[in-house]
Amino acid sequence: MIDAPYEDAELLPATRRALLHRLATGQSEGRAPSMTGAVMRDGHLVWSSARGELPGGAQAEDVQYRIGSITKTFVAVLVMRLRDEGLLKLEDRIGAYLDTPAGGDATVAQLLSHTSGLAAEARGPWWERTDGALRPGLADLFGDHPQLHTPGRLHHYSNPGYALLGALVERIRGESWYDVLRREVLEPLGMDRTTLTPGAPHADGWAVHPWADVLLPEPAVDTGRMAPAGQLWSTTADLCRFAAFLMGGSYGTGRGDSYGTGRGGQVLSAATLAEMRTPEGGSRAPGQSGYGLGLQVMQNDGRTLVGHIGTMPGFVAALLVSPRDGIAGVALANRTSCFEAVGVAADLLATVADLEPRIPAPWRPLSEVKDEHLELTGSWYWGAAPFTLRLCAGGALELAPSGSGGRGSRFRPEEDGTWTGLDEYYAGETLTAVRTAEGAVSHLDLGTFVFTREPYGAGDAVPGGVDAAGWRAAEGVRQQVSEGSDQR
User: What is the DSSP letter of 452?
Assistant: First the structure.
């Protein structure tokens, strides 16, 4: 269970009313027959509600809706489990595992991040509204122009790409992707209301006439081979469980009856989940969105949100998580193209984060420390630019510029005495404490960049050397310029 820094998981009355108002506004303005919403905070379901017509007697958090492309994140979890078990590599070509007429040159990572170059949709007719029996094999997924872009060149969302990933799971595990999902993910996380086909109580899917308040039922077909791209049904309560898992925790209601199994770490490690949350190609500029390994990454009002949005005929779903705040917002609606649900999920999350900001966990000293780690802390200089190096919880080092600008990063210790960058510019780079023959720390080498204890410290550590005369005042500079000028 995540250590919740709250004395009481219950939300304040004003916060609860603001959440209800946002959900009600979204359902009304979105003209959705029904909309359910929920908020997860630090592993606990702290609020849920619904507006519109629900099945008789059903609790809002227990009503199933089709979640569309959120299914892709579940498939990505299965693929990352295979990677972590050593059964595949992300750089492997999918063609090494599957006899596919298209996409065989794309890597597993490219399929996960939608950079495979495959077409966005399966061969017609419209796969989301037609029975999967029309596409019984992989060869039936692709039309006349399945490969639109060179693999790895750009992001191009591809539903057939995730059909291939589902087939990859089946090829390696030897059983259907959903059976694997049920056993390896859903059951350990306590998600018994997430299913391949609907189970009561569930919402029916509808289209709403654009110019009149009348409804048209939408089909809910079994999409067969395309199911890994958008087949699953789920509830707000189950998606809150999944949100807690995506942040590296387990799940409870916050009202005394915990649903958490504590086995989220057995599904995927925190390091693998962090890897999934990183956009392909690395960090993006503020305001830009990206796509990681099965997870959408977006910027919203200064927050980095991860999760996924899903649509199928008659349904829209949104699951958004702010790892920084420890909060997730979920919204489900049973109307085609009711994209208000996406804004509702983001606003539910932001409402709690803004009205009830996270209370920091108590500061505590490290339980143990090595002298050779402690002696690395303090002030360092890259040339004349000042930096500080701190020893943090878990034994990590944190490098941060002391002035304006500069590149920082966190580093984890390795068994050989070096450190590996965890994020930002130095992700994956090696930090080495270079020592003298006597064992004292001479300088730091970070990917060939040298950090010294003094600005341009004297000695031979700085590549290119340091002027033997050292630092000089303005008079010395003027004299040097004068002596070096051209006298005519």
Answer: B
